[in-house]
Specification:
single chain, 1415 residues, 85 strands, 34% strand, elongated
Length: 1415
C-alpha cells in the first residue's frame, strides 16, 4: 500500500554529501590526467556509488552512504610454468579496507606462503608458478575480498589463472610436395594455451610471417602462392619459459606446374568457432588443385566483400579474419573454392558470445526496521547470465525472507538491524562474470527517510515520512481482532485509540511475525482513518503475532497488545490428475496428456508439468493451461520421467505418479571412434573401431557400414554392411596396395556420419613364420609407487610374424614372473609391486616357432608417499530412536574410527530417510559431523527408513544397512470429513449421521463424539454428546422432535486425545411422521427455542396443583417425616441380613478396586448421603484399546441442548456437568406433571470394551474421593432391578459455573451388557429398533405398571433454584440371566441397593417439597 508522495527538496539546498561527491570527482579527474586507466577504473566503481546521495532532512541525524568500491579488479590471466604472475586488485574506502584473496572459494593464508604475497595496493603476486601433470596448485579461480571493519565486505569479480601445459605436439609437420602457385599447410598442433608461444623456422632460421605466410590459430603454418624459395626444412618451436621444444623437421619440395588438371581438395577447412564480442576470429580455408582455385566467402548465404569492410580481411589469400566482433557477425560462414573445372564448399558456424553487462545496477537504500525492500539488478549477456547475490561477502541463500523476484532482483522482507551492509549482484556466464552492489542503511524509527522513498521500497512498506512535529502521540488501538482467518491471509480490524476516539486523521501500521521468529514485517493501511488491513502471503497452519500502531502527524504511538492468530490448514487441494499418458512424437519431443483431477474441490486454475532426464537430478517444470502439452528440445532416444501437479486457488495439489517414456530414435549424430587398421597379410586387413559416443548414438546401433577403396584416383568404392561387432576382416585385397577405409554407424532410422578416411597398405608378400621374431626395437619403463608401466615398439623386421610379447620381471631377476600379451599391444602396467624396490624387466617377441631375443631394462619403484586409497567402510549399527510424533534420533557407529569413536578428522556423515507411503517419495538427506543426527519435521504415526554413509575428502562409503522407526501418534489435526445427516425412512423421529475419518488422524481413531443441539449459537458444553466407537462411520439417533432444526458436530479421538470439531451441519426433522425430512432447510428458530416435551405446555417453574399451599405444606411435611423414620428402621434391619455370599463378593470387589474401598466394613453399608460430599465423586479415565466390535449403549436423549461440556484435546480436563441427574422410567403422570418445570437431562451413550473387570470408571486426578464411591463397578451386591433409577448421569457432578471441560467416561463392565443399568422389564408395547445401527431412543414415554417403579423424582435445579447435585452411583451390570432372576424376585425382598433406589425416590419427593415451599 503506497504512501503519499514525498515533498520535493528545495532546489537551492546543497547536500554535504553531494559536495563531497563533487570533490571526489575532481580528485578522479586529477588522477585521470596522470593515469587514465586508474581514472576509468574508478569511474566504473560498482559499490556505493550506484545512486546519488540523498540529502538528510533538516534537523535529523542521518548516516550517509560510504563510498566503498573496487578501483581495480583481477582479470583472466594466462601464465607459463616458472614465471611470476600479478593479479591486480585495489579498493577505495575511508578508512582503507583490508584486502584478502580467495582461491576456488577458499581464503588464502598468505602469511606463511613463501611463493604468494600481498602487495601494498592489494594485488596478489605469485612467484615461480608451479604446474605439472599431477600438481597444479596455482591454476584456478581467484577473487579479491575487501573489508572495512565497521562498514562491511565486498568481493570482486572472479578471475581465472590458466597455466600453459607442458610443451607437447599433438601433431608434427610432415614432409610434402606442392606445385608452384598452390598453397600448402604444415601442421603443428599444440594445446590452445601454447599457441601464443609457437614460432616457425625454415632451414633452422626464424621464419618471417607476412600476408602470404601466416600462422593459424591452431599453430599450423600456411604458405599461399608457393614459390621455389619456399622449399626447405621446416620445424615449429614452443618457447614457454623453459627450454624450447622442437618438432621434427619436415621437407617441403616445390614442384613445377605440371599443367595437368588435378582434383580440387581442401587442405584446411573452417571449423565451428566460439568467440567473444570485441575479439577477432580467423576462419581458415585452404584449397589445392590444378588450375589454382579462387576462394570466396558467404555469411548466411550472403556474399562477403572483405575489400569494402574495415573489419573483414583475407589472410594468405583465402583465410577470413573478422576483427572487433559484434553480435551481428554470428552466423554460418561458407568457403567456396572454384577453379573452373569444379567447385567445392565447406561451412562452419561462428558463435559470438557476450560477457555479462549491467543494464541496471543496485541502488543504495535507506529503510526502517520491519520494512520490505527490493534491490534491483538487470543484466544482459550471451549466453544469458545467471545471477547470485552476496551480502557482506557471503552468499545470500533464498528463504522465506530473502527472495529472488523478477528473475534477478533481491527482495528482503521484514528488515532487522543485522540486514544492514553491502549487497552485491554477481552476474556470470560462460564468458566471464561481473559484479555491482549497493549499501543498505537501516535508520532508527524516529529518523525520517531522506527525500523521496526509493523505488526499491515495496508498496506495502513505503512510509509517508515527513519531518515530525512535537505533540501528543496516539495511544494503542483497541479491540484488535482477526475478523477473517484463511490458510494464507488474515484480515485484522480494530477500533480507534482511546486518546483519539474519532481517528479520522490517523494512519495505522500492522507489525507481524511468525511465532518464534525475531524478524518482523509491516503492513500499512491504504488511507487515513481506515481500521482494517489484510495480510497476504502467509503460510498455512502457522502462528503469527500481530501488533497495531497508530500514527498521527507527531509520530507513532503505542503498540497494541500482541494478538496471536493461527492460519487455517491447507484445504480443498486438487488430487492427482488421472490417466496421465506420455508418448514420443519425434526424436526431440514428447507429448503428455492427462485428465481433470477427480478429487479437486476447487476450480482448477492451471497445471505444472515436471520432467526430468532419467538418471539426472535437476527436475524442470513448465506451466500448462490445458490438459496436454508437448515438450520440445529433448535429447534423442533418451528416457524422461514426467509428472503433473494441478493448482487451484488454494495452491498445488497432489502429484501424479511418474510416467517414463523415451524419445524416438534417429540417425547417429557422430561417427564411430578410434578407427584403427591392422594389416594381416598381403590380401587382408582387419578394421577395429569403437561405437559413437553414448549421447550421439540416438538409438540402438543395428550395424556398421564400411566403405573402402584404393587410394589411387577414380577408384570404385566398395561398401560392406556388418553387424554390431566392432571389427571387420576385409579379404581379397591386392598385394602391396594402399587402401582407404571409413566406417559409419547404422540405426533403424538410417546411416550416421562416417569417420575420416584412414589408409593402410597390404604387404607385398605374406609374413614369414619359419623363425622366431627379432628383438623389439625399443623398451621403455616408467616406475610408479606400486607399479611399473612398460611400453615398447615392435621388431624392425616386419616380415616375421609376431604372435605376442612375453614380459618377465622380478626383484633383481627378470625370471620371477612372466606375462604374455597380444601382438597388437604396445604397453602394459605391472601391478602389485613393492615401493622403493629394484626390478629387472625383460621383453621378448614370440610366434608359433618360439621366443625371440630378449630386451632388458631395470627400474626402481617410487617410495610410498600417498595414503592408501581404500574405500571407506559404511557406518554400522544404525539405530532409530523415536522421540516424538515428528522427531527420530539416528545413531550409528563407525568401524573406521578408533575404539573410543572420537572423530578427529574432517569426515562427515550423510543421513538419508524416506517413507514408503506414497511409493514415489524421494529421499531427503542431511549432513552430520557426529555419530548421531536428530531428524525433525516428520509425519506422525508414519514408518520411516534410514541409512547413513560416511565421506572423507573424495572418498565415500556405500549406504549402511537401513534402520526403521515409526513416529508416535499425535492428536488428530483435522476434523472428520463429509458429515451428513439424513432422516431414516419410515421413522421421521430417527436420523442417521454419517461421516468419514479425518484426513489427518495422526494415529488409529479410537472413537468419535457427536455433538448436537437445537441452538447453533449455544455454548459447546450445552450440546448433547453421543460417543461412538472408532471403527464406525455411522450412527443413528432416535426420538427427536418433529419439525425442529438440529445442528451436528463430530470430533475424532485417538490414543493421544481429541481432535478439532467439524463445522456444524444443520438438519430439520420432518413435520409429520410420513415426511422424509432429508435435505429440508427451514428458517432457524433461534438460540432460545425450546421444543415441547411430552406434550406438556406448562411453563417452567409453574405449580402443578391448585391446592391451598399451606395445607399442602402440612400434609407433605408430615408424610415426609413419617417416611424417613420408617425407611431408617427398615434400612437397619435389612443391613444385618447381609449374607456371607454377598460379603465374599464385596471383598472380591475390594481386592480388585483397592483404590476405591469403602472406609468402613462391608457390613456397615449405609444409604449414600444425598446432600454432602457430592463434589468428591471421581471418575477415572480408562485405558485405550477399544474392542474391535464394541457394544453400544442405547441412551435416552432429551430434545433440547444441555450443559454438557465438550472434551478438550489433551483429555486431561476435569469432568464437569451442571444440573444433571439421571431419571429412570417414569409413568405418564410423572412425565406430564413434571415435564414443564423440570430440566430434561441427557444420558451419554458409551462405547464398551471387553476388558478384565478390574478396570474402573476414571477421570482426571481429583484431590477428594468419595467414600462408598460408585467406582465399585465390578461387583455391586444387588443391582437395581430397573437399572435406570439406580444411577445418576455418568459424569462428575460439580457446582454450577465450573470451568469448561468435557466428560467422556469409558466403562469396562464385568458383564457383557449394553448399558450401565440392568435392562428394564419390557414395556407392554414392543419397540421397533433397527438392529443395523446403534440407536439412541429418547426418554421413554411409556411407564411400567410395576408399582415399585412409578416414582416421581425432581430434577436438580428444579424451579430455577440451585440445588446440590446427587452423587453418581455406577453399579456393576450382572448377567442377563441373573438380572431376569432378580427382576422376578424384586417383589419379595428388599436389598441394600433397592434401598438406595428408594432413597433416590425419597430425595425426589423432598425436592418437590422444597419447590412447593419456595413457590
Amino acid at each position: 500500500m503506497a504512501a503519499g508522495p514525498e515533498p520535493e527538496p528545495e532546489r537551492g539546498a546543497r547536500s554535504p554529501v553531494r559536495a563531497a561527491s563533487v570533490w571526489l570527482g575532481c580528485l578522479l579527474l586529477l588522477l585521470g590526467s596522470r593515469d587514465p586507466a586508474l581514472a576509468a577504473a574508478a569511474a566504473s566503481s560498482s559499490v556505493g556509488r550506484s545512486s546519488p546521495q540523498p540529502p538528510p532532512p533538516p534537523g535529523a541525524s542521518v548516516r550517509t552512504f560510504t563510498p566503498f568500491y573496487f578501483v581495480m579488479e583481477p582479470v583472466d590471466t594466462l601464465s607459463v610454468r616458472g614465471s611470476s604472475v600479478i593479479l591486480n586488485c585495489s579498493a577505495y574506502s575511508e578508512p582503507s579496507p583490508k584486502i584478502e584473496w580467495k582461491k576456488d572459494g577458499t581464503f588464502l593464508n598468505l602469511v606463511s606462503d613463501d611463493r604468494r604475497q600481498l602487495l601494498s595496493d592489494g594485488s596478489l603476486l605469485i612467484n615461480s608458478v608451479v604446474h605439472s601433470k599431477h600438481n597444479k596448485p596455482d591454476e584456478g579461480y581467484y577473487q579479491c575480498v575487501a573489508t572495512v571493519e565497521s562498514l562491511g565486505t565486498i568481493v570482486s569479480r572472479t578471475a581465472k589463472l590458466t597455466v600453459a601445459g607442458l610443451p607437447r605436439f599433438a601433431s608434427q609437420p610432415e614432409s610434402s610436395s606442392v606445385y608452384a602457385g598452390n598453397s600448402v599447410v604444415l601442421n603443428c598442433e599444440v594445446n590452445a594455451d601454447l599457441v601464443p608461444f609457437v614460432r616457425w623456422e625454415q632451414d633452422r632460421q626464424p621464419l618471417v610471417l607476412d600476408n602470404r605466410v601466416i600462422k593459424l590459430p591452431n599453430g599450423a603454418l600456411v604458405i599461399s602462392n608457393v614459390t621455389e624459395g619456399d622449399g626447405g626444412l621446416y620445424r615449429c618451436i614452443i618457447e614457454s619459459g623453459g627450454p624450447p621444444k622442437y618438432s621434427e623437421e619436415a621437407e617441403l619440395k616445390v614442384l613445377p606446374d605440371p599443367e595437368i588438371p588435378s582434383n580440387l581438395v581442401f587442405l584446411s577447412q573452417p571449423s565451428p568457432l566460439i568467440k567473444v564480442i570485441g575479439q577477432s576470429a580467423i576462419l581458415p580455408c585452404i584449397a589445392s588443385g590444378i588450375p589454382i582455385p579462387a576462394i570466396r566467402w558467404t555469411r548466411n548465404e550472403e556474399a562477403l566483400s572483405p575489400e569494402s569492410s574495415d573489419r573483414l580481411m583475407l589472410l594468405a589469400g583465402s583465410n577470413l579474419e573478422v576483427r572487433d566482433l559484434m553480435e551481428e557477425d554470428a552466423g554460418t560462414y561458407a568457403c567456396i573454392a572454384d577453379n573452373g573445372n569444379e567447385t567445392i564448399e565447406a561451412q562452419a558456424d561462428l558463435t559470438v558470445q557476450a560477457s555479462p553487462e549491467f543494464l541496471k545496477k543496485p541502488a543504495n537504500i535507506y529503510a526502517h526496521e520491519s520494512m520490505d525492500i527490493v534491490f534491483e539488478c538487470e543484466v544482459t549477456g550471451k549466453p544469458t547470465p545467471t545471477v547470485k547475490w552476496v551480502k557482506n561477502g557471503d552468499m545470500v541463500i533464498p528463504s522465506d525472507y530473502f527472495k529472488i523476484v523478477k528473475e534477478h532482483n533481491l527482495q528482503v522482507l521484514g528488515l532487522v538491524k543485522s540486514d544492514e551492509g553491502f549487497y552485491q549482484c554477481i552476474a556470470e556466464n560462460d564468458v566471464g562474470n561481473s559484479q555491482a552492489g549497493a549499501q543498505l542503511i537501516i535508520l532508527d524509527h524516529d529518523v525520517a527517510i531522506p527525500t523521496l522513498p526509493p523505488t526499491s521500497l515495496t508498496s506495502a512498506t513505503t512510509d509517508h515520512l515527513a519531518p515530525a512535529t512535537t505533540g501528543p502521540l496516539p495511544s494503542a488501538p483497541r479491540d484488535v481482532v482477526a475478523s477473517l482467518v484463511s490458510t494464507r491471509f488474515i484480515k485484522l480490524t480494530w477500533r480507534t485509540p482511546a486518546s483519539d476516539p474519532h481517528g479520522d486523521n490517523l494512519t495505522y501500521s500492522v507489525f507481524y511475525t511468525k511465532e518464534g521468529m525475531n524478524r518482523e514485517r509491516i503492513e500499512n493501511t491504504s488511507h487515513p482513518g481506515e481500521m482494517q488491513v489484510t495480510i497476504q502471503n502467509l503460510m498455512p497452519e502457522t502462528v503469527y503475532i500481530f501488533r497495531v500502531v497508530a500514527q498521527n502527524r507527531h509520530g507513532s504511538g503505542e503498540r497494541s497488545l500482541p494478538l496471536r492468530v493461527e492460519t487455517q490448514p491447507e484445504v480443498q487441494l486438487p488430487g492427482p490428475a488421472p490417466n496421465i499418458r506420455a508418448y514420443a512424437s519425434s526424436p526431440t519431443s514428447i507429448t503428455v496428456s492427462w485428465e481433470t483431477p477427480l478429487s479437486g474441490n476447487g476450480e482448477i486454475q492451471n497445471y505444472k508439468l515436471y520432467y526430468m532426464e532419467k538418471g539426472a537430478d535437476n527436475e524442470q517444470d513448465v506451466d500448462v493451461g490445458s490438459r496436454s502439452y508437448t515438450i520440445n528440445g529433448l535429447k534423442k532416444y533418451t528416457e524422461y520421467s514426467f509428472r503433473v501437479v494441478a493448482y487451484n486457488k488454494h495452491g498445488p495439489g497432489v502429484s501424479t505418479q511418474d510416467v517414463v517414456v523415451r524419445t524416438l530414435s534417429d540417425v547417429p549424430s557422430a561417427a564411430p571412434q578410434n578407427l584403427s587398421l591392422e594389416v594381416r597379410n598381403s590380401k587382408s586387413i582387419v578394421i577395429h573401431w569403437q561405437p559413437p559416443p553414448a549421447g550421439t548414438q540416438n538409438g540402438q546401433i543395428t550395424g556398421y557400414k564400411i566403405r573402402y577403396r584404393k587410394s589411387s584416383r577414380k577408384s570404385n568404392v566398395t561398401e560392406s554392411v556388418g553387424g554390431t561387432q566392432l571389427f571387420q576382416l576385409i579379404e581379397g585385397l591386392d598385394r602391396g596396395t594402399e587402401y582407404n577405409f571409413r566406417v559409419a554407424a547404422l540405426t533403424v532410422n538410417g546411416t550416421g556420419p562416417a569417420t575420416d578416411w584412414m589408409s593402410a597398405e597390404t604387404f607385398e608378400s605374406d609374413l614369414d613364420e619359419t623363425r622366431v621374431p627379432e628383438v623389439p626395437s625399443s623398451l621403455h619403463v616408467r616406475p610408479l609407487i606400486t607399479s611399473i608401466v612398460v611400453s615398447w615398439t615392435p621388431p624392425e623386421n616386419q616380415n616375421i610374424v609376431v604372435r605376442g610379447y612375453a614380459i618377465g620381471y622380478g626383484l633383481g631377476s627378470p625370471h620371477a614372473q612372466t606375462i604374455k600379451v597380444d601382438h597388437k599391444q604396445r604397453y602394459y602396467t605391472i601391478e602389485n609391486l613393492d615401493p622403493s624396490s629394484h626390478y629387472v624387466i625383460t621383453l621378448k617377441a614370440f610366434n608359433n616357432v618360439g621366443e625371440g631375443i630378449p630386451l632388458y631394462e631395470s627400474a626402481v619403484t617410487r617410495p610410498h608417499t600417498v595414503p592408501d586409497p581404500t574405500p571407506m567402510m559404511p557406518p554400522v549399527g544404525v539405530q532409530a530412536s523415536i522421540l516424538s510424533h515428528d522427531t527420530i534420533r539416528i545413531t550409528w557407529a563407525d568401524n573406521s574410527l578408533p575404539k573410543h569413536q572420537k572423530i578427529t578428522d574432517s569426515r562427515y556423515y550423510t543421513v538419508r530417510w524416506k517413507t514408503n507411503i506414497p511409493a514415489n517419495t524421494k529421499y531427503k538427506t542431511a549432513n552430520a559431523t557426529t555419530l548421531s543426527y536428530l531428524v525433525t519435521g516428520l509425519k506422525p504415526n508414519t514408518l520411516y527408513e534410514f541409512s547413513v554413509m560416511v565421506t572423507k575428502g573424495r572418498r565415500s562409503s556405500t549406504w549402511s544397512m537401513t534402520a526403521h522407526g515409526t513416529t508416535f501418534e499425535l492428536v488428530p489435526t483435522s476434523p472428520p470429513k463429509d458429515v451428513t445427516v439424513v432422516s431414516k425412512e419410515g421413522k421421521p423421529r430417527t436420523i442417521i449421521v454419517n461421516w468419514q475419518p479425518p484426513s489427518e488422524a495422526n494415529g488409529k481413531v479410537t472413537g468419535y463424539i457427536i455433538y448436537y443441539s437445537t441452538d447453533v449459537n449455544a455454548e459447546i458444553h450445552d450440546w448433547v454428546i453421543e460417543p461412538v466407537v472408532g471403527n464406525r462411520l455411522t450412527h443413528q439417533i432416535q426420538e427427536l422432535t418433529l419439525d425442529t432444526p438440529y445442528y451436528f458436530k463430530i470430533q475424532a479421538r485417538n490414543s493421544k486425545g481429541m481432535g478439532p470439531m467439524s463445522e456444524a451441519v444443520q438438519f430439520r426433522t420432518p413435520k409429520a411422521s410420513g415426511a422424509s425430512g432429508k435435505g429440508s432447510r427451514l428458517p432457524d428458530t433461534g438460540s432460545d427455542y425450546k421444543p415441547p416435551i411430552s406434550g406438556s405446555n406448562s411453563p417452567h417453574g409453574s405449580p402443578t396443583s391448585s391446592l391451598d399451599s399451606n395445607m399442602l405444606l402440612v400434609i407433605i411435611v408430615s408424610i415426609g417425616v413419617l417416611t424417613i423414620v420408617v425407611v431408617v428402621i427398615i434400612a437397619v434391619f435389612c443391613t444385618r441380613r447381609t449374607t456371607s455370599h454377598q460379603k465374599k463378593k464385596r471383598a472380591a470387589c475390594k481386592s480388585v478396586n483397592g483404590s476405591h474401598k469403602y472406609k468402613g466394613n462391608s457390613k456397615d453399608v449405609k444409604p449414600p448421603d444425598l446432600w454432602i460430599h457430592h463434589e468428591r465423586l471421581e471418575l477415572k479415565p480408562i485405558d485405550k484399546s477399544p474392542d474391535p466390535n464394541p457394544i453400544m449403549t442405547d441412551t435416552p436423549i432429551p430434545r433440547n441442548s444441555q450443559d454438557i461440556t465438550p472434551v478438550d484435546n489433551s483429555m486431561d480436563s476435569n469432568i464437569h456437568q451442571r444440573r444433571n441427574s439421571y431419571r429412570g422410567h417414569e409413568s405418564e403422570d410423572s412425565m406430564s406433571t413434571l415435564a414443564g418445570r423440570r430440566g430434561m437431562r441427557p444420558k451419554m451413550m458409551m462405547p464398551f470394551d471387553s476388558q478384565p473387570p478390574q478396570q474402573s470408571v476414571r477421570n482426571t486426578p481429583s484431590t477428594d474421593t468419595l467414600p462408598a464411591s460408585s467406582s465399585q463397578t465390578c461387583c455391586a451386591d444387588h443391582p437395581d432391578p430397573e437399572g435406570a433409577a439406580s444411577t445418576s448421569y455418568l459424569a462428575s457432578t460439580q457446582e454450577e459455573g465450573s470451568g469448561p471441560s468435557l466428560p467422556t467416561a469409558h466403562v469396562r463392565p464385568s458383564h457383557p451388557l449394553k448399558s450401565f443399568a440392568v435392562p428394564a422389564v419390557p414395556p407392554p408395547g414392543p419397540l421397533a429398533y433397527d438392529p443395523a445401527l446403534p440407536s439412541t431412543p429418547l426418554l421413554s414415554q411409556q411407564a411400567s405398571n410395576h408399582h415399585l417403579h412409578s416414582v416421581k423424582t425432581a430434577s436438580i435445579g428444579t424451579l430455577g433454584r440451585s440445588r446440590p447435585p446427587m452423587p453418581v452411583i455406577v453399579p456393576s451390570a450382572p448377567d442377563v440371566q441373573e438380572t431376569t432372576r432378580m427382576l422376578d424376585d424384586s417383589e419379595s425382598s428388599y436389598e441394600p441397593d433397592e434401598l438406595t433406589k428408594e432413597m433416590a425416590h425419597l430425595e425426589g419427593l423432598m425436592k418437590d417439597l422444597n419447590a412447593i415451599t419456595t413457590a
